[in-house]
Amino acid sequence: MTANQCAQFQALLARRAQGEPIAYLTGRKEFWSLELQVTENTLIPRPETELLVEQAYARLPFDGKALVIDLGTGSGAIALAIAAECPQCRVLATDKSTAALKKVAQANAQCLGLHQVAFLLSDWWALGEIKATLVVSNPPYAAANAPHLSQGDVQYEPRSALVAGVDGLADIRQLIAQSVFHLVADGWLLLEHGYLQAEGVQALFEQYGCEDLQ
Question: Which fold is adopted by the domain 3-207?
Fold first, then answer.
């Protein structure tokens, strides 16, 4: 290596030694076999979130009329994976962060050639009269005092994309409560949630009259 390359490498090692995630050091992370740009303004896409893509794909019709909305898209990982698998569907990706939506998610769509994905700067359900066949989201679901927020990669990720009130369900509660106004008849709302939140999330779905809970 040149002296400059060696200095750059040593600087990266020092940052990693402090715990900074490799994805932020390289600016890249694979998700659903797609190489995505990531920055400190977005969550790092994780393998378990690919389950949302699998579940969405299993529920989408193949007539080209479906509209899929990804709320809180971040790096665009979920929206772009669905678009790659279902090119006949229309996909709308939203986020309230300009830095995430315009500098990361849209850039990823451009690099991957997934031009059927539209982007909207929006805070959750601020969508007007739009109704979707399927809405998918990986919202913040950590409780404000969750101990793992100060551990591992998570401590470097944006807290606004992680923390959702005292119980971690503030955003999920809002998503479920208003979903009826933005889904067509027999539409689906698919959410990622914490591993200890299943009972609470199911109760919220039941409270707002949702059916076929899984």
Answer: Rossmann fold (3.40.50)
